[in-house]
Amino acid sequence: MSDAIDLTAMYAMHDALRRELAHLDRVTTTADRDPRHVLATAAGWQLLKKALHAHQSAEDDALWPPLRHRLAGRPEDLVVLAVMEAEHAAIAPVVEAIDATLADPGADALRLGQLTDALTSGLTGHLAHEEDAALPLVRRVLGAEQWDHFGRVQARRIGRDAPLLLPWLLDGADELTAAKLLAPLPASTYAAYVARWAPAYALLDRWSAGTAA
User: Is the full-model pTM beyond 0.85?
Assistant: First the structure.
């Protein structure tokens, strides 16, 4: 495998998504709160959707295409890539269905639970499949320039949500991961992270009703 590509940010994103899926599962299985009300107004659901969209759309637009080009003539590896894209395509409609259910006054909690279970199982399975099958291909065939381009595209997709999504990404990360992801920041951005972004995020009760970001 190539040492030119550092997958720290990729694994940090996957870990953050898994962390939030665990919160989502807890919210939808807690008997003393109506999950429809919690999800409709919780910052955690909004942040999960924003991060997931930024991450997967960047993969679709800036990671899979160069990978497909490099894998030309390797049909077995191209099947892996096709499956990655199919799994992405299956996840987005579930997120949309959850939001439609939250917006429907007549929808019941059972329907919401079925959809959030589908999202949790589908996304968890995809993340594991990507780590096991796709990321080894990425490391073998892509160069640092292509990988860095993917990172820049993902950062642009996060855009103005960075003050919340950067501390969200690093929530629970180990010191080495945090240091690696914070090191490239411009001095002014790092100062904003330390002085404002991280403290504001620490005060956010992401999975309580009435905290929508």
Answer: yes
